[in-house]
Amino acid sequence: MTQVQSLAGKTALITGSTSGIGLAYAKTLAEAGANVVINGFGDKDAIEQERQGLEAASGAKAIYLGHDLTKVEEIEAMMNEAASVFGGVDILINNAGMQHVAPVEEFPLDKWNLIIALNLNSAFHTTRLAVPYMKGKKWGRIIQTASAHSLIASPFKSAYVTAKHGIAGFTKTIALELATFGVTANCISPGYVWTPLVEKQIPDTMKARNMTREQVMNDVLLAGQPTKQFVTVEQVAAVALFLCGDAAANITGSNISVDGGWTAQ
Ligand code: NAD
Q: Where are the domains of the chain?
């Protein structure tokens, strides 16, 4: 059996890693010995506690850069700061994301623009800024948290589904561009994972579909997931860790579903 290899000496930058799936990536990669850069919003003390926990787990360095990734100049500042501390980023995980649920004719313009900026455009900016270092090192891993919604659609999530289909196409494109440089690019596409992002969309979905909380949980969220279980953040992070290893050096341009069979239907 393939052993999980050490990521000591590598630096992983994970966007949106103060919570949910991103935090699980940070913990898993830190446990494998990587330096980690965490990003996202939240309570300063809680984030500092997580940062210290990551350093304790990795024996390496963990820093927090709380830049707002809906703004290009902030993304540039974050990538420059990460490079000034670590020289560059070996593993880039584009994970920050948000959701808004509304019928298309009522979809607020500001929400559309924010979701496209965060869930899609930010991945282009971090990638274009990370790639020169990876090419120079002849090694790199770019991982996107896409979604089952990068493969199929659901009503009332037009911006999210658009962004996630976009990131799937972007990933295939950069996989081809980077194929001879030892740099792989892949999507991980979870179904419903129990995180704050999912919890927060329950009230809007109740409103949009005129349903109770229980109906949303069972008839919307888990309805399409044949296992009838939420995916765990640890299960998603384990796939990312595998993609970072040598055993995954020829997995590139792929879109790996972790969705309890949702998109198999
Ligand atoms: P979450 O809400 O727990 O985490 C989102 C993270 O993004 C947080 O750290 C938050 O602070 C950060 N963030 C939000 N706005 C930001 C901004 N402007 N700049 C920087 N960071 C920002 O959500 P999650 O469920 O862990 O989602 C993570 C990713 O997984 C998202 O891309 C989401 O689309 C994707 N995903 C989630 C599910 C699910 O069921 N939870 C399923 C498929 C895909």
A: 11-192+231-264, 194-230
Q: Give CA–CA dist 138/109, Å, rounded.
A: 41
Reduced to 3 states (helix: H, G, I; strand: E, B; else coil), residue 183 is strand
59 Cα to the center of ligand 1, angstroms: 26
Q: Is 197 in the pocket of ligand 1 (CB under 6 A)?
A: yes
The dihedral through the CA atoms of 2, 180, 93, 132 has a sign that is positive
238: which 2 tokens?
């384990």
Nearest residue to 5 via CA among 256, 253, 258, 243:
243
Averaged pLDDT, groups of 10, the chain, 265 residues long: 77 98 98 98 98 96 98 98 98 97 97 98 99 98 98 96 98 98 99 88 90 90 91 97 98 98 96
Q: Considering only CA atoms, which of 130, 139, 137 is closest in space to residue 89?
A: 130
Report d(CA 245, CA 91) in Å as an integer.
11
Name the closest-CA residue to atom 33, ligand 1: 97
DSSP, collapsed to helix, strand or coil, labels residue 66 as coil
Query: Looking at ligand 1, which residue's alpha carbon is closest to its atom 23?
Result: 197
Q: Are 96 and 69 in contact (CB under 8 A)?
A: yes
CATH 3.40.50.720 fits 11-192+231-264, yes or no: yes
Residue 160 a catalytic site member: yes
